[in-house]
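Objective 1.3, modelling of assemblies. Example input:
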Amino acid sequence: MNIGEIAKRAGVSRSTVSYALSGKRSVSEETRRRIQQVIDELGYRPNASARALANGRTSTIGLVFPPAGNHYTGMQLDFIGSVVEAAAAYDYDVLLSPSGVDSDRSFQRLLGERRVDGAILMEIRLQDDRVDHLGEENFPAVCIGRTARSDRDWWVGLDHTALAAACVNHLADLGHRRIALVNRPEHLLRAGYESAHRGLDGFTKAAAERGLTVRTYCCGDDAPSGQECLERILHEDPDTTALVTLNEAALGGLYRGLAVAGRHVPRDFSLTGVVAGRWAETVTPQLTAADVPAEELGRLAVELLVERLDHPDAVPRHHLLAPPISLRASTGPAPAPAVNR
Amino acid sequence: MNIGEIAKRAGVSRSTVSYALSGKRSVSEETRRRIQQVIDELGYRPNASARALANGRTSTIGLVFPPAGNHYTGMQLDFIGSVVEAAAAYDYDVLLSPSGVDSDRSFQRLLGERRVDGAILMEIRLQDDRVDHLGEENFPAVCIGRTARSDRDWWVGLDHTALAAACVNHLADLGHRRIALVNRPEHLLRAGYESAHRGLDGFTKAAAERGLTVRTYCCGDDAPSGQECLERILHEDPDTTALVTLNEAALGGLYRGLAVAGRHVPRDFSLTGVVAGRWAETVTPQLTAADVPAEELGRLAVELLVERLDHPDAVPRHHLLAPPISLRASTGPAPAPAVNR
DNA sequence: CGCGTTCTTCGAACCGGTTCGACATCTCTG
DNA sequence: CAGAGATGTCGAACCGGTTCGAAGAACGCG
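Predicted structure (tokens):
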């Protein structure tokens, strides 16, 4: 059931069938009807590979997501979902590519073999060879996150610096003086992940401006690490009264650590951070947080990519979002300093 | 930079280059080296569309996942991740297809246009027209979950009946007499989702056998719904001392509802259910649960699909898993009946 | 030396679409 | 009524690979 078969049964040439379907040249009403009827009868659909080969477009975009094997966070899930959904609206499919263990290989596969028309990259690093590489080749890509030199890239991202600072200020306003930062895992920070870096930056600067005493921690992307991290925080400075987390996956563990230590939230201890709204609502008390608009970021990334695909010479565009802090129930006034500690 | 260009620069014909790469016919060592050198110099990679067109295989599998737009659960995330990873090991890419709003359209796109060699389906219904349809066409597909008539399908799944029953028995052994079931959302149950149905089934039967008093609830896939559901449970039968949840996304809300109601877990109230291990560990106290081995299910699904693709006439195979309950901290002996309620 | 094998390599056909140029008809206009 | 222009259709070439049959070269053997 290929286009030749349709043509034969409709008594026309292959090209006529093609034009009838694409509408790129006029076809008489009579002929079009006959062709359509045959197509409907046979349930014909044009072969995607052949079409991609002929016109050089696959109608597929690649979603390059973080190393497989380790844990995914809820935020990443939200990105994937919203990207797929937004892409469908533009008639694009989404091909997943773990840029994991063998990063180069799957990258080569996607781009070198032209499986996709463009790509969306997640978990960007400040110095990101993937981005540099794509930039050199002028391959249509959009980053969720931005590199250090981001003027020439297309990206959507969060203003992690401002977000972390907002969290610090929120806590400072409530009277907290000794606070901690719970960052993403150390290997990610060391690898230069932008959210971890800029978040740390914003946190540190804002804390300095407000004259706060701070400690910063890296923490694995799971609940047990979160609990462990919290124990370390309280052990190293028992007078800590609040924390900011950039690590969503550790959230449950942080809460557990506080419960185990007998610190009531928010009476004895306040938490805030940068977390997607849906996940901030799963903990008790609900987390006061800068809600990561994962859904919007995914959608914007697709929109930018589609625009770039339609206009190959367009100048780089980007969106920097800085959602406000949603007040929920996990922060409160700093407790009066304990006399006996 | 196509195969013709390589051939020209290496001074051979296109077919020789093809054979040198595929190894399907012998090529002299001398020639092979010359070709390889040119390829390395130019960084040539064969075009995936052309290759797919020529040999009729795309080396891509489709992952048909639940309606977009609504919430994804952590379990679904784990599936996606493990499927992608396992597929990569067999040199397959994964194309995501939301079987959402316009289910037929994206289905047609994937299968009718031959974008994928095979498909993995998630969130199966007992009567699933997608599965029936694929079965009729003998299209290589593997379900994560099983339909009512599953003899002729390929699938991997959980024994939800047994799992729910195990949860009930665990609670009954601890002395609980009045328990509730928190199921997936009502529209999913009504649509015939197999996990919701079989889970409900196993729960009801086991409870009857043990002579327990039960109530069953449907609950939205998010924390606020979970909280609301718990309020309803305690309102409609304040003597309820335990619950089983099939709804992972509601978990945080259930815990919050209990906290708000002043019921201590596990002293006053026990929780258990069917939840992926990683997520069972995010709540405090950690959830005693039948751990959904999402990672293993995803991997097995890919293995079955690959086998089916390699042997088109193989007889249907499947894996039914029934992981044991992992004892954590959310269940305990039933509280002594309150005299005054 | 002649002949059958084996080893290499090539050209052509094919996969299933799209698109270009050409041609035949039909229609309008001066 | 001739010529220009628009309309509808077709055949051929092309996208970039794979694969088949055949042909030339090298080799072994009687």
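The radius of gyration of chain A is 26 Å.
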